Structure formats: structure tokens, C-alpha cells
Amino acid sequence: xPWTNVAGETLFYALYTGDVMGRHNLVLVHxxxxxxxxxxxxxxxLPGANVYALxxxxxxxxxxxxxxxxxxxxxxxxxxxLALGLQRAAVLGHSMGGAIVQLLALRRPEWLEKAIIVGxxxxxxxxxxxxxxxxxxTGQDGFKKALDLICQRMYGPQASRQMLLRGRQLLRAVSPxxxxxxxxxxxxxxxxxxxxxxxxxxxxxxxxxxxxVAPEESCGLSQRIxxxxxxTIRGAGHMxxxxxxxEVAEAVARFLGVG
Length: 259
Known about the structure:
This protein is α/β, with parallel strands linked by helices. Helices cover 40% and strands 19% of the residues. It is built from 10 helices and 8 strands.
């Protein structure tokens, strides 16, 4: 499992080499409180692509410090790609990661070929009760209530009990300070006035049963980005890549032209 140094921080990423010619590189950017573990094998090992599943600073196995804005996370992803020496790549982000991808697409560095936005929107509407309970001042009781609310809203109706328990287990392993900082940064994210300026080929994927980012938000985003396609995963909630991994991976493979 590889590590790399980015601006003095040691970052971890899971690597799958599916394209020895280096024509198709895909960088995965997880959501709030996430890590590379949140990506299913169908995406982490997407046939025909080299996949780099990054742990953002202070997440998963990465070192470094937590960020207070999504723009600074986007800057880190940009530097990560440069550190790896990738000449071109597509970036796929989920939820908070999808917001980071939008910021990268607006910046449009030379290496960025395509953008894939999963379960995200131009403005992230974080539920006030979740943000309130995540505040460190509420202590462990507040953090537990926040996890309850997040887990209730994160998955669709078809998600198994085992999937729900695993999701909660992963969240409990996250530092409360990191999770609060992520959600606070998401609550402050709003590029509604700028998304029309995204000129890259863009794929937007949403779950029909998403209760964190309503599918209408994803639909609206697809209508405002000039070169966007929208794929709806029926029956899936916010964690659609875990709930319906094959369907999400197939949509990504078609968009990238791999497989």
C-alpha cells in the first residue's frame, strides 16, 4: 500500500494498476469522515484503469491536519496528483468529495480530464441537528446522537442490517473533531453561482432514495453544468457506491471508456 509526501504531510492511498499504459487514471476522493475503505472493490479495482483511492489528510491512514474549507482539500488533491507525476486523470468524489471535485473542475488543472460527482450538489445542505450534535461542546452523548442521525439517513431502504452496522463501525472510528470539521466545511460550501463555468465532461450519479443530498439537487446540478450526464441509481441511498456497487462501477466505466 503506497504512501506519498504532499506539502510536508504523509498521505496514504490504495493503488490498483489496471492500465499499464497509463492512459486511464482515476483518483477517488471520499466523503466526510471517510477513507479509502468506503470505496467498494468494484471501484477500487476498476478494470482498465489505474485507481488511486486517497485518504485525505487526517483521515484513514493519512497523517496531516484536518482542513476547515473544502477548497484547501481540493488544493491537496491537486498537489497529490502532481506528486504522483500523473499527466492526466479523472477524479471521482462522493458527497464532500463530490464538492471537492467541483472545485477542482472550476480550477481545471491541465491534468484533469473528466469529473465524476457522486451524491453531491453545488450547495451542501447539512442538516442543522447533525451539525449541532457534532459540536464538541455536546460531548460523547452529542456525538452518539449525531452518529445515530447520520446512519439513519445515509443508507437507502434496501440496505442490509450488516451494511448499516458496518457503516456505523467505520464512523465510530473517526475522530469527532475531524467529523465535525468536515461537516462544518460542507455546511459552508456553496458554489451555486459558479457551476455553469465547469467546462469538463462531467458525470453525476445520484441515488433515488438519497436522504442526505436529494436527487433533485443532483438533477439540478446536471442541468447547470454544460457537459454533464446524469445517472440515477434506483433504490439506492446516499452510500450508493456501497449499496449498489456494480451499477455505480458500470456507469463510471462507461463514462471513462474502460473495462
